[in-house]
Structures
1.
Amino acid sequence: PQARILVSACLLGRPVRYNGSAKTLAHDLLARWQTEERIVPTCPELEAGFSTPRPPAEIQNAQSGDDVLSGQAHVVEDTGRNVTALYERGARSALATALQHGCRFALLTDGSPSCGSRFIYDGAFAGRRHHGQGVTAALLRQHGIAVFAESEIERLRDLLP
Ligand code: SF4
């Protein structure tokens, strides 16, 4: 069977982001992989129980979702609400989906406190990004799943068996 790829639902055109938008990735590879039935969609935040739209959230005082998973950092909405437990739940749900479908690769929306894999925002809600990864990307990588940002789709193609 073809290698399956876990993909952020907003990259597939679903309007599930916090602000009600999608982040549609118009790329021939995505269309091809859909035809080949390789794509397994996930939106960790919706799976955690959030609705759309929702307040923006950022990881505070850490560059990696690993620190959230180990209890050393939190995910907080711009309202001040601590949503760490929900972000962890979303990450576990995405991991369960990946394992269930045998996905060893993921293509996730960069910058998100869940799906970011190369950069995230710094927790001050000032639009400042830094190198880092979100909670779902961290948990997937802890379980040996290779996570790529949408900007790396061609690198993922080159690595796919
Ligand atoms: Fe997209 Fe991931 Fe945010 Fe869901 S959690 S809207 S899939 S970036």
2.
Amino acid sequence: MDVDFGNALASVAVTGVSEASLERLDRRVGRAHERIAAGIEDRTFGYASLALPEETDPTEIRTALEGFDPEAVVTVGIGGSALGAKTVTEALGCAGHHTLDNVDPVETARLLEELPLESTLVNVVSRSGTTAETLSNFLVVREAMTEAGVEWTERTVVTTGDSGPLRDLADRHDLPTCSVPEGVPGRFSALSAVGLVPAAALGCDIEAVLEGGAEGRQSLSPSLFETPAYAYGAVAYALENRGATTNAFVPYAEALEPLSEWFAQLWAESLGKDGLGQTPVRALGATDQHSQLQLYRAGRKDKLVTLLRPREREDVPIPDTDVDELSYLGGETLGGLLDAEFEATEASLAAADQPNVRLEIDRIDAESVGQLLYELEAACILVGELSGIETFTQPAVEWGKRAARGLLGGGEFEEAEAVEGKTSRR
Ligand code: PA5
């Protein structure tokens, strides 16, 4: 990933960051890098995520998938156990991947109606093996397969931790399994079996995704001026300290739209701690230029706008027309138009004193996607280091999970009692 933060500098946008302060911040980036590098080396909890490109064994994944040649894959998982896989398959155009993350009954029923169950692979993913949404959806899918006369045990692969109810279920039915790597929180697990099983099952090049991740790792150095991931993280951190409490993440490529969702989870769940953290906003260029851009240009000056694009893409020519006012479009391409929109947005934001950062990848392929995922994770970890927070925990998310389980009678949880206490007072 290349990072251009020229439009986030104080010389361009009044609310931007001065070059002198970035120079000073770079000393802290150097110290943070030392901690990150040591954490990767020792495979310390969380930091171990940045060792995944070399730790993930594609053969383990391919062995678990032996004998499957599915027409469709449905990933049953939620949050970090779903968004990485969705991001990778959509970016790489691995057709046939569906995600069942929510427990909206209408959507679950619709998907089960649509799927060719006899040629679908069910990919159940849960690190803890206890997440109510995932296990409920899985039980529903399993039942639907049985009703359709499909032997679910022959069409299911499980990715989970070394112990827990999902591991027990997989063992009991002798299901093929992959392991969630040790020391890797869900949202940082895209470059493991958690994020790669569906892509592998649908014939995509997961080895190249991991090679891209490895390039990301090689690019880490002690200076933000030499490390794209740290440049992005440091500028986001510096801007947050100057009031940019929102980070609007805007890829200019439909295939990267799920990446916005993945980024939003990464940023929010990792950095939303101790009263800190930018609120990530998911957007898509050029579509959201016709809606959200109004706010980004003329609304409160509390934002960083992150614009992401591939430098090369397959293109479609725009045909000539005999309508005079439209003649400027003839001879152009849709990709050229999208690039013009990107650059116009960037310039218009800068002209309105709205800091923005340009992220570019060469093209959307397996390698660049692997590198992009890795570098955005490294950027997030750097922000966590600079902010002095616990990047790798998610106590608020866990609170909600325990409360929901308790309310459903799945155990005694004080969080559920707190919810019951509140609702009974109404
Ligand atoms: O990043 C995280 O830790 C979370 O988003 C989890 O991935 C999510 O809650 C799902 O948890 P599990 O994999 O245990 O089902």
